[in-house]
Amino acid sequence: MALFFDNFDQQFANLGTVSLFFNTLFCWSQLLIRTKSLQLLTKLTTLASSLFIGFSLLSRWYEAGYFPLSNLYESLLFLSWCLINGYLFIEQKSKSRIVGLLITPIALLIAAFASLILPTDMQKALPLVPALQSNWLMMHVSMMMLSYATLILGSLLSIFYLLVSKRLALSPAEDSFHTNSTKKALFLNSLDLWSYRTIGFGFPLLTIGIIAGAVWANEAWGAYWSWDPKETWALITWLIFAAYLHARILRGWEGQKAAFLASLGFVVVWVCYLGVNFLGKGLHSYGWILEK
Description:
Helix content: over 70%
Structural class: mainly alpha
Number of strands: 0
Number of helices: 9
Strand content: under 5%
Oligomer: single chain
Mean pLDDT: 84
């Protein structure tokens, strides 16, 4: 039975990666070809990607007996799944296909890295070490990964805002997105607004994740905070997005100034999630893939 579900897990992860490849292809093809058939294929492959990766995580959960967020492979799949579903939600609410253009390549790279590049030994579901045998595993890590996905989404919208606004400033007459200044302004305002809303949703998740991690750390290691590299960068991430929300809410920042700050947050999130694990060890060493 365990072997069956182990194969099940890998097969669904691979199917999710393949589906994401076609989803990215269809999504970007809509820049050149706009047909209802292509739109339907894009929607179907998005849903299929979410289902396949979701089933992969569920089967792994059943097999291992714990929430599948204990190693780098599992967290990458979960992050990809969160990005896909975040993209589906924002696209449904905003009625814009721009989010798919930004998110599908990243979700594909994450899933492909997890399924095709990570060593087989790192993809296996192993018994939890004592420090991870806690109910806080689900609470802390799921909140952190959900916050990473949401903040990445919001930051990407801000990066795209900067790129589009710069292009419009340089060559407004050649803009390919809209044909008049009113529509251009509405388009940029929509990007800015959805970036703000998405980051505003992700920030409380990050806060809850950090607090839950501190409680778990005290339970496991006897201290709420130890200035571990991961903890330090989580705090830096929190401060960057706290500054972004402070600037928007209390200082009235919007448009390019706010987008620059959110774009910085995009880099910081990735350093916090992957960079720390690649460049140095600490108490949060589950993602250290260079370890010999």
